[in-house]
Predict the structure.
Amino acid sequence: MADNISRSKLILPALVRFGLGVPMVMLVVFAPAGSWTYWQGWMYLATLFIPMFFGLAYLFKHDPALLERRMRLREKEATQRKVVAFSWLYFVVSFSLPGLDVRFGWSNLPVWVSILANVLVFCGYMVFFWVMRVNSYLSRVVEVDVGQKVISNGPYGLVRHPRLVSAGQLFFASKNWQPNNATGLFFQATKDIP
C-alpha cells in the first residue's frame, strides 16, 4: 500500500474520530459538573487533545501505516473484547465522578496538584509518542503483523512494555487533575492538621 493511497484513505476517518472524540470527552467531563466553568476540566482537555492532535499530524505525515494500525478497534479475541468493553465503562464512570465532585463540592484540591498532574499527563504523552516513533507496529489491538520485530532500543531498552508504563502514568496523572481522587481526599483529610 503506497503512502499516498493510505494517507488519502486515513485522513477523513482520523479527523472524524478526533472530531467526535473531543465532544464525547467534553460530555463525560462537563455534564456531571453541570458547569462550563470547571477550569480543571478545560486544562485537562487541552493537555489531552493538543498533544493528541500533533501526534495525529505526525503519524499522518511520517508513519501512516502506524496511524492505520492505531485506528483498528476490533479485537479478535473474545476475552480481549470484554476487557476493552469494561475499560470504556470504567473510563466513563471514573471521569464522571470528578464532575459530580465539582457540582456537589465534595473536596477541594489545591491548584498546584491539578497543574502538576497535567504536567505528568503531558509527560506521559511524550513517552507514548517516543514509543510510537520507535515501534511502528504499536497497534491498538492485540496482534502480530508480518515483518514485526522485537524492539530493544529507545524506551524498550529501559522497560519491556513502555506503552503500558506511559498508559499507567497517563491514567494515574489523569485521576489527579480532578478534585475527586485519592490525592484530593488526602488533602481534605489533612488540611486542618497543623
About this structure: The mean pLDDT is 78. Residues 3-190 form one domain. DSSP finds seven helices and no strands in the chain. The two ends are 66 Å apart (CA to CA).
